[in-house]
Amino acid sequence: MQIILINPPSPFLADDRAQPPTGLMYLAASLEANGFKVHIEDLAGRNDWQERTSELEADVFGVTCSTPNFPIVKRIAELLPKNSLKIVGGPHVTFLPSETLEMTVFDIAVQNEGEFILSETVKDYKDGKRLKRIYNGSLVDINKIPSPARHLVNLTDYHPEMEGAATTVFTSRGCPYSCGFCCKITGNIVRFRTAESVVEEIKLLINKYSFRNIIFEDDNFCLNRARVKKICEELRDFGINIRICPRADSVDKELLKILRKAGVSEISYGVESGSQKILNLMNKKLTVDTSREAIESAKEVGMIVKIYLIVGFPGETEETVEETKWFVEETKPDKWLLQNFIPYPGTDVWNRPEKYGVTWISKDYGSFYTVGRGGKGGIVFRTEEMDEERIRILHDNLYAFLMNYKPMHRG
Ligand code: B12
Ligand code: SF4
């Protein structure tokens, strides 16, 4: 039984080879552990993706789909062999499984995490059992799944934004917060990998793959302080550089010093806005002051600081954009990334638009990207106060200010 897992291209992005397709590498590892032969076809960065897809041959295809990838993923399914089993999963499908099946020629949609359910489904298919159209993989025990099948991709083909060759690691999944712009695909309960398994994976990346720069891609690496300290204790002598993205309220000077000693050279915070009014509307449960302190403290211990900003959340005005500019002027981050607010399926804004004054949300999923080529994102909703033009003006105003402050870094 030959299985091919496909990562679609994302031509709207400045670089769609910024990171390896980790979700597919996890799925492949579980399939291999169940004795299946798997190939990962990464179409990212390929202009000839349609020709390439038409050439693929396998019994089962699994395709991953984020919302802006939907139109391309739909086309990929049409190009795959008619007699193959075509399964689709990923963030978009998790929230819109029935609609995805109605709008495409996929046979099966899988919600949530696919490590166990995909192998079970393929086994059932092999045994000729009757299959359902929608499966829910739920949230898996991340201490019971194999490490990503990194041998199935060429890790050096990807360029995460860090000094020198870098790659990514997930040490936990989940987040207990409920920000209105986030689709919370990893669930509310945080699942932590053991410190031992994280350290083993990092040793493998150093010894087998020669990486000395690692990005921890967790939603929030610092939620369990005791575990962070344990990992840091182990990593101290490795001499590697690490980038993390914790919530600003999960770190303090003491922890930052420990992280710095363990090799954390770069830290990114989801600051989102310099306006407390906007943070409250977002349900971010964070104060502007906390972000300010977290930036100052990280700089004091010698880390490069990057901030993520969102513009155009319902309620944004010229005044709130000005507050974000003041915040940047005052805190002087080393790097920034500005994203347009997009009401993704599964977010609170998508589920309860009226609560945010949202009067229309587009179904043109190909435009559902927050930042793409030229620093621009799609504009896919309206509120009573903000039409598309006004959202564009607010974005361009802040973007011009930030570019004047420092050029943008992707990632
Ligand atoms: C790292 C990351 C990136 C990286 C790398 C992406 C990559 N190559 O994988 C970069 C910076 C490039 C990036 C870009 C973007 N990202 Co991003 N990103 C993430 C992040 C933090 C981790 C993704 C990841 O690797 N997870 C780990 C793996 C194990 O999980 P997974 O990929 O979801 O796969 C699991 C399941 O989804 C499922 N599954 C997935 N595919 C399939 C396929 C089959 C057949 C089956 C059965 C199951 C299955 O099983 C997998 C194993 O459990 C997530 C948030 C999060 N915590 O997940 C956001 C997230 C995926 N990104 C998001 C967004 C919006 C974007 C952008 C659109 C932003 C933009 N610039 O406009 C782009 C689009 C990229 C793209 N083409 O998909 C949203 C997606 C929302 C949506 N509805 O699509 C998320 C969920 C953040 C959020 N909470 O809102 N991103
Ligand atoms: S944005 Fe970050 S803190 Fe907020 S819900 Fe999503 S993962 Fe959690």
Report on this structure.
The protein is of the alpha/beta class and 411 residues long. Helices cover 34% and strands 18% of the residues. Helix 6 links the parallel strand 5 (108-111) and strand 6 (134-136). The strands form four sheets. The protein has a six-stranded parallel β-sheet with strand order 2-1-3-4-5-6, sandwiched between helices. The longest helix has 18 residues, at 388-405. The chain has helices at 22-33, 49-55, 70-79, 91-95, 97-103, 115-126, 195-207, 225-235, 253-261, 276-281, 288-300, 318-331, 348-351, 388-405; strands at residues 2-7, 37-42, 60-64, 85-89, 108-111, 134-136, 166-169, 172-173, 191-192, 213-216, 241-244, 264-272, 304-311, 335-340, 358-361, 381-383. It folds into two domains: 2-136, Rossmann fold (3-Layer(aba) Sandwich); 160-405, Aldolase class I (TIM Barrel), CATH 3.20.20. The structure holds cobalamin (B12) and iron/sulfur cluster. The site of iron/sulfur cluster has 9 residues, from loops.
Q: Any low-confidence stretches, pLDDT <50, length ≥5?
A: none
Query: What is the percentage of strand-forming residues?
Result: 15-25%
- Could you give the distance between the termini? 37 Å
Element order, helices and strands?
EHEHEHEHHEHEEEEHEHEHEHHEHEHEEH
Rg (CA only) = 21 Å
Task: Say which molecules are bound, naming each kind only once.
Answer: cobalamin, iron/sulfur cluster
Overall mean pLDDT stands at: 97
Total number of beta strands: 16
Which fold name fills CATH's third level, the topology of the largest domain? TIM Barrel
The number of helical segments is 14
Q: Write out the strand line-up for the largest beta sheet, numbering strands in chain order.
A: 2-1-3-4-5-6
Give the structural class: alpha/beta
How would a crystallographer describe the biggest sheet? 6 strands, parallel
Helix content: 25-40%
